[in-house]
Structure formats: C-alpha cells, structure tokens
Write a structure and sequence with these properties.
Layout (H helix, E strand, L loop, with lengths): L1 H23 L9 E6 L1 H9 L4 E15 L2 E22 L3 E23 L2 H6 L5 E26 L5 E4 L5 E24 L3 E6 L2 E14 L12 E5 L3 E7 L1
Antiparallel strand pairs: 1-2, 1-11, 2-3, 3-4, 4-5, 5-6, 5-7, 7-8, 7-9, 8-11, 9-10
C-alpha cells in the first residue's frame, strides 16, 4: 500500500512542477518590455554636411514600453537648430551695384506621445526573422523660434563697371522674428531588428501633418519671406529616422 501511495504522490508532484513551469514561461512575449534611446542618422548627417554658412543640428531621445506583445507606448523629446546664410546675386544698374546677404535661423523644441504597432514574436522572441515591420502614430506639440534677415548695401560703379564706394543711406537691414506654436501628428511606417540581447535598431519614414500659429512677431523693414513661412498647415515626408534602442 505504501509503494502505490508514494508513486502517486511522485506523479502528482511532477505534474504540479510541469504546470508551474508552463504557466510561468510566456513564449509569445518579449520579456524586455522597456527601451530608451536616440536617433542617429540626422546627427551624423549634420556633422558631415555642416559648413560655416549652413549648419544644422537635430537631437531626439525617447522612451518606450510594450504594454501588450504587439502595442507599445512611446514618448519623445526633440531639439533642433537650423542656420543658413546666402550671398544673393547682386542687382546691377549702370551706376550702382546692390548686394544682399540673407540669413535664416530657427530653434525648435518638440514633444511627442504615441503608439507603435508591431508583430515582434518572430524577430524578438523566436529569432526566426531578422526584421519586424512596424507602424508608429505620434501626436506632436512644439514651439519654434524663427527669424529671417536681409542686409542690403549699394555701391557706386566707375566707368568700367567696378563697384568701389558705398552709396550713403543704402546700408539697410530688414528682419522678421516669429515665435510659432504647432500641433499635429505623424504616421511612420518602418521596421526594426534585434542586435544581440538588449540592443535594437529601428528605421522609420515619418509622414507629418502639423498646424501652425504665430504667438508673437517682430518686423523691421518687411523682408521677403519664403512661401512656406506663413503656411498654417504643413504636410510632408521627413528625413528617414534611424533609432538605436537599449532594452530592459
């Protein structure tokens, strides 16, 4: 009697242990649900392309959490600066030459909150695929300070057409400075893949819709502005984004 009872208890113990292991391990979910990181592509391009008369900088950081195996919440902060100076072709008459030096400058601070939809099991749990397609939708809100400046100078020309002396009163500076607020959203298809256990690389192509309003504006001598300057609605495909994640 004692032997059958011991065997029964042993089998019950094995069944209980097997059931505990099965319940405790979820093979359909990635256990590393948090990640944080930065965007890499734009800073690298900025470092390569920057010139004294045209320099740019865009920095973006984010944090992300998978609230379900295929849905994540994502929050981001972006800081960007842009400066460009252009020596425009001179305006020439029989007696004078007028030169123009134009500059444009902006500083942008943006916050984003949204979601990511992605089937990750094959790439991030099973390892049977290298990449997993995704779709990101992000609500955007931000502030931009932008300015444009034109500096004009007229010169007398001599009998052979050489400009040699400034014309009095033609040294004119025109400027406009605006503080803009905007809100909108972007839709970004993309894909990502795992690099080792805790690193992830993600590529996105944002399609952005934003509505802009001018909070305050200062104008001196009414410079010319580009066509897009006063547009209340902006729609466009932005530079591709390349993000690196550290997961935990």
């Amino acid at each position: 009697m004692r032997a059958p009872l011991s065997a029964t208890l042993f089998l019950i113990g094995l069944a209980t242990l097997a059931q505990d292991d099965f319940v405790g391990t979820d093979t359909l979910e990635d256990p590393l649900r948090w990640s944080g990181g930065v965007e890499l592509l734009r800073p690298v391009i900025d470092l390569i392309d920057n010139q004294p008369d045209a320099h740019f900088l865009r920095l973006e950081g984010f944090v992300q959490r998978w609230v379900r195996p295929d849905i994540a919440a994502r929050f981001s902060v972006t800081y960007a600066t842009d400066y460009e100076a252009i020596q425009e072709p001179p305006f020439i008459t029989d007696t004078t030459k007028v030169t123009r030096y134009a500059t444009q400058e902006s500083t942008d601070l943006r916050f984003g909150a949204g979601m990511v939809i992605q089937k990750r099991r094959e790439a991030f749990v099973e390892g049977t695929k290298h990449f997993a397609p995704l779709l990101g939708v992000t609500l955007l809100v931000g502030r931009q300070d932008r300015s444009i400046t034109d500096e004009d100078q007229g010169y007398f020309r001599d009998s052979v057409g050489v400009a040699f002396e400034p014309v009095p009163g033609t040294d004119v500076r025109s400027s406009r400075t605006d503080r803009m607020f905007y809100a909108g959203f972007d839709v970004a298809p993309g894909l990502s893949g795992r690099l080792g256990q805790r690193w992830e690389l993600e590529m996105r192509l944002p399609i952005e819709f934003t509505w802009w309003s001018t909070w305050e504006s200062t104008t001196v001598n009414y410079p010319g502005v580009p066509d897009w300057w006063d547009q209340p609605v902006n729609v466009g495909v932005r530079w591709p984004r390349l993000y690196v994640h550290y997961r935990w």
